[in-house]
Amino acid sequence: MKITRTMAARAAMFALAIAAAAPAAIAQQGDEAAIRLLSNKWQQDIAKQDINAIVALHTPDAVVLMSHEKVAKGPAMIRARWKEGAATPGLVLHWKPIKISVVSPTVATEYGTYTESYDTPQGKGTDEGSYVVIWNKINGKWKVALDAPVTSAPMPCDQK
């Protein structure tokens, strides 16, 4: 088979495209690993009730959307939300990412499932569900821009 200039040019362009994509793929893997570590540290910070670390993980304009709660936007509201939530008696909260997608050099998404248990006057309470987190990279650091857990528990009924 005779190799034409066009075939050689296409092969060269293909090789360049692969070479150009390799560093991006490696960077994405590094970013995914960094987000996974931050997500795990976030869980540890909740267990330690380290509210300053939790707030610092969020962007200045971050939004938290929790089931059956009003939107929490910005550091003051996020601080209040997590101060109350992390202090829940007997709280054991764990989430597991199913997928982390780095969609650009500065935006990533994470979704997964969570379980939690806590003490109530009636005994142990539990919840489980799924979540979505949108991460933004600001000044080289990944930060939570949106946190949206969604319970799979039925809506509480109004007691009369």
Layout: helices, strands, pairs:
Elements: H1 5-47, H2 51-56, E1 58-64, E2 72-73, H3 74-86, E3 92-104, E4 107-120, E5 123-138, E6 141-151
Parallel strand pairs: 1-6
Antiparallel strand pairs: 1-2, 3-4, 4-5, 5-6
Kindly provide the radius of gyration, computed on alpha-carbon positions and rounded to a whole number of angstroms: 22 Å
- Give the total of beta strands: 6
pLDDT below 50 for ≥5 consecutive residues: which ranges? none
Q: How do the helices and strands follow one another from N- to C-terminus?
A: HHEEHEEEE
**In which order are the strands of the major sheet placed?**
2-1-6-5-4-3
Silhouette: elongated
Q: Describe the biggest sheet?
A: 6 strands, mixed
The overall pLDDT average reads 88
Beta-strand proportion = 35-45%
Structural classification: alpha+beta
Number of helices: 3
Spatial separation of the terminal alpha carbons: 84 Å
Fraction of residues in helix: 25-40%
